Amino acid sequence: MNLLSTLTRPEYVFRPTQIIRRLLCELPGPRDKYETVRLPWGSEIRIWPGEVQGSCIRRLGIHDLETNEVIWRLLDPGECAVDIGANIGHMTNPMAVKVGSRGKVLAAEPHPGLFQELEYNANTWRRIKNVGSITTRRVALSNSNGKAQLTVPPGFGKNRGISFLVAGGPSSIEGALSYEVAVTTLDTWLGADGAIGLLKIDVEGHEVQVLEGAAGLMSQGRIRDIVFEEHNPPPTPVTKLLEANGYSVFHLDGGLLGPILAPIRAPYTRKIKDAPNYLATRDPQRAAARIAKKGWGVYSFGPFSLGWPRSSS
Fold first, then answer.
1. Within 10 Å of residue 185's Cβ, how many Cβ atoms?
2. How many domains are there within the chain?
3. CB 90 within 8 A of CB 46
4. Is the pTM of the predicted complex or chain greater than 0.70?
5. Average pLDDT for runs of 10 along the chain of length 313
6. Fewer CB within 10 A of the terminal residue: the chain, N end or C end?
């Protein structure tokens, strides 16, 4: 990537001080201790700078800009949001900020180490006024209640978003670690009351099972918007299941002036390094109207804040 294309990324254009942080990130220094970074809308998050998500937040100020922006635009004050595969909470936080003090966020992360980091961050955010209540659980979401094996493949130390759930016993991947984790369904967790404004799913290939475990909620129309990662080009079992339940499915793209909602068969306009993200919605007119607006809402809360990283134990 040349210098011009780097500097014209929205992460730098709409938050110019991020250029300074990026330059500081290039200086030699330790990557083996936690750092606390201020997100564009003002919240602090503790990261591990030596792995993919933490490094991205450190360099760009945000991980997965388009998905965060869609969360920011689609959630309303007082709603319930659910973050499945929450990792350290880098999407849990914008959910909590947007739903406000009358709203709530449920965040699930099965990996024991990541859950501790999620809970550390959540405890920081719980002390902030006008932020929704945050409930965290060390649990995996699937289509049944009980136990399953969480596989942690080699390379997890560099990318802590690649663990995945295995049914029927430990994975056979050489060098992988395995943890027995609790499993539940979204129908069980949410219960008979309430609705979900936005559900985010990032479960490394377990999406169909998560959605099967939310069959009751979907059939009752109690989940409006679903943001999910999909490794395979559609149509896939995931997109077919969603469409069968009344959802319109779009892929999420973006340009300098904002996110783009496109038909799932349209080509991407930007190079995608990770698995593409998609939006499934029961109200496509509402989603299209909100996402069509130019600009980046995530930068509306202090885009010129320096947000310097600082070391922490």
1. 20
2. 1
3. no
4. yes
5. 70 88 75 88 94 93 94 97 98 97 97 97 95 97 95 91 78 82 97 93 95 97 96 92 97 90 74 77 97 90 38 39
6. C
